[in-house]
Design goal:
The protein contains nine helices and 16 strands. The chain is an alpha/beta fold. A hairpin with a 3-residue loop joins β15 and β16.
């Protein structure tokens, strides 16, 4: 078996200066991982913290999402009320709002490319049962938002582009690339070390073993890989779910503004530098998308192309300029899973496609609860 560089025959400088043990090793350099390191170092400024990331960029959903701030469309919240207690739905909405506020406060709106562009949720027909139920809940949902933001009447029914819709003027979007760049800088400025191209093989007692064979000693470990958590911690209830996104060529007609949802949030689209970003439709093939493997589901791609042609009525000569997939993590509920595994291992997972809104706040809660 070939010897991996850095495992044996290390230089004097590697063993005397670079090789050391850590107070905390964070696995995953996405929103939750980088935020966890930042908040840990805020509590323990002299601690030694290492962040490990398997990819050149973070490999989960942080840099492969659609850039929606997304704290809750009326249709999604109405659907949630069918499956959860009202107090739980309200708490989750408030959690997302406070999480977004924390993200903007810690990093700065300009630094993450935040734009409060407003959000539209579209329906098929003004007499659609789900639309009518959602409209009936708008006063309630707006009061929940007002409790956190002080803003009144955030949800409003209207017609947009000839379609029945519910407008949420407080919704926004981010530039996920700027967000990642800002978070990396924040973590490094806090004192954390970051190692890219460092995939983890397993977590042992007081150490993390990389696939290269390198073993890193650490007093504590925080796993922040969301949909990939099951690869390292078998006791996790979080399962992967792949999401597909594409961006069109520049369009002559720019009729769809803001961040938009359809079908209880399963489908999402937004204008992006004169193009249209469109993604989701995971419900077209739920089982096929229960995977952590990168790839494009042809059934879902076809559905979204048909949706772009028939519902969005894009111009005839439009085409796909770029397409990709990202892996999310879903648990038994929409509330993220923060669990302790063994003596000194904590994991954060199950952000349910809402990592932009709740990733940083979830990280802060995990640090405050388990790393006092």
């Amino acid at each position: 078996m070939p010897v991996e560089y850095g495992f044996k025959n290390r230089s004097w400088w590697e063993t005397s200066t670079l090789e050391k043990s850590y107070d905390l090793v964070v696995i995953g350099a996405g929103i939750t991982g980088l935020s966890s390191a930042h908040f840990f170092l805020r509590k323990h400024p002299k601690a030694k913290v290492l962040i490990l990331e398997r990819g050149y960029w973070p490999s989960g959903a942080t840099t492969r999402n659609a850039g929606f701030a997304c704290f809750g469309s009326a249709g999604e919240l109405t659907d949630d009320l069918l499956h959860s207690k009202e107090t739980e739905v309200r708490q989750l909405l408030e959690f997302r709002l406070r999480g977004l506020n924390l993200l903007k406060t810690e990093l700065g709106e300009d630094e993450i490319g935040y734009h409060q562009c407003g959000g539209y949720e579209f329906f098929d027909h003004p007499k659609d049962e789900h639309y009518l139920e959602s409209v009936g809940n708008l006063e309630k949902f707006s009061s929940w938002v007002e409790e956190v933001t002080g803003e009144k009447d955030s949800y409003q029914p209207l017609m947009e582009n000839g379609k029945p819709a519910i407008y949420n003027r407080l919704e926004g979007a981010v530039d996920s690339g700027k967000l990642m760049r800002s978070l990396l800088k924040k973590a490094k400025d806090s004192g954390a070390e970051v190692r890219m191209h460092a995939p983890v093989q397993e977590i042992g007692e007081g150490e993390v073993k990389l696939k290269s064979g390198i073993r890193i000693k650490s007093e504590s470990v925080l796993v922040a890989v969301n949909g990939f958590t099951g690869d390292l911690l078998k006791e996790s209830n979080v399962k992967p779910a792949r999401g597909y996104v594409f961006v069109t060529n520049p369009l002559k007609k720019k009729k769809w503004k803001g961040t938009c949802h359809y079908n209880r949030g399963y489908v999402y689209f937004r204008d992006l530098d004169g193009r249209l970003l469109l993604g989701g439709a995971r419900d077209v093939d739920i089982e096929g998308e229960r995977t952590s493997q990168e790839g494009i589901n042809p059934q879902i791609k076809k559905w979204l192309i048909d949706f772009a042609n028939n519902y969005l009525e894009l111009e005839e000569d439009w085409n796909i300029e770029k397409e990709w997939s990202g892996v999310m993590g879903f648990g038994k509920s929409k509330t993220p899973e923060i669990i302790k595994s063994g003596k000194n291992v904590v994991s954060i997972a199950g952000l349910g496609g809402m990592g932009v809104a709740i990733g940083m706040e979830t990280a802060r809660r995990a640090i405050n609860e388990y790393f006092s």
